[in-house]
Amino acid sequence: MHDTIKLNAQGVRMIAHRGLSGIERENTCAAFVAAGNRSYFGVETDIHRTADGQYIVIHDDNALRVSGMNAVVEETDFDALRTVRMTDLNGDARMDLCFPSLQEYIHICKQYDKTCVLEIKNHFEPADIEAVIRIIEREDWLARTIFISFDLPNMICIREKLPDQPAQYLVKSFDDGLLDTLKAHRLDLDIYHKAVTAENVAACHAIGAQVNVWTVNTIEDAQRVIDCGVDYITTNILE
């Protein structure tokens, strides 16, 4: 049976990337349950707005890679996307693998007592961010949710609506002005693991910002970022 690669995380909080995507098809209920049954602090996923204004769990803009169906997510209604079945990691079709709703993802995290790490894909209008917040509030899991996004306006909107909510700005590199952005909007950092150094982790900590790194899948890379002092590691397969 395929299993996780065990890591001495030395107090760093581990986050299952798109669920336990090294074992189950990413961003499925199966991947979320697999993560829930293990020692992860949090379970990360991605949401898009559908054409009819609902919210569905998928990473890509198009369903093609994970299902074989050519469908632009944000131009397709929720119910149509829900009829699509994904393939597993071996490329075999599985009738149990459909695109989860936001509510289903939250329910699984709540059932297994895991923190939601919710990436808002693309740009969301403030009304959509408000709607997502309301959904999470109705599930009584907002206190156990961390919002992340590459879109800075999304992060600023989260901060305006939820002044004390954990929120991590996703970036690929540690560019000039990043610390000023984090400080101005009281955001934590979620950065590509190869871009992180002990010096920039220390600089983030000096302004009160925590550091998450993505996506770390080897013991060697994990030990390097642990030595840099990161607070979270996002991974497909390490545990």
Notes on the structure:
This protein has 239 residues and is of the alpha/beta class. It has a single domain, classed as TIM Barrel (Alpha-Beta Barrel). The protein is built from 9 helices and 9 strands. An 8-stranded parallel beta barrel has the order 1-2-4-5-6-7-8-9, surrounded by 5 helices. Strand 5, helix 6 and strand 6 form a beta-alpha-beta unit. The chain is globular, with a radius of gyration of 17 Å. The mean pLDDT is 97.
Question: Brief overview, please?
Answer:
The protein is α/β, with parallel strands linked by helices. The protein is built from nine helices and nine strands.
Largest sheet: 8 strands, parallel, barrel
Annotation, overall tally of beta strands: 9
Helical run tally: 9
Helix content: 25-40%
How would the global form be characterised? globular
**In the CATH scheme, what's the topology name?**
TIM Barrel
Mean pLDDT equals: 97
CATH architecture: Alpha-Beta Barrel
> Any idea of the CATH class?
Alpha Beta
Q: Uncertain segments of ≥5 residues (pLDDT<50)?
A: none
The CATH homologous superfamily: Phosphatidylinositol (PI) phosphodiesterase
How many distinct folded domains?
A: 1
Strand content: 15-25%
SSE sequence, one letter per element? EHEEHHHEHEHEHEHEHE
- Whole-angstrom Rg: 17 Å
Give the terminus-to-terminus CA distance.
Answer: 16 Å
Strand neighbour order, sheet with most strands: 1-2-4-5-6-7-8-9
Structural class by helix and strand composition: alpha/beta
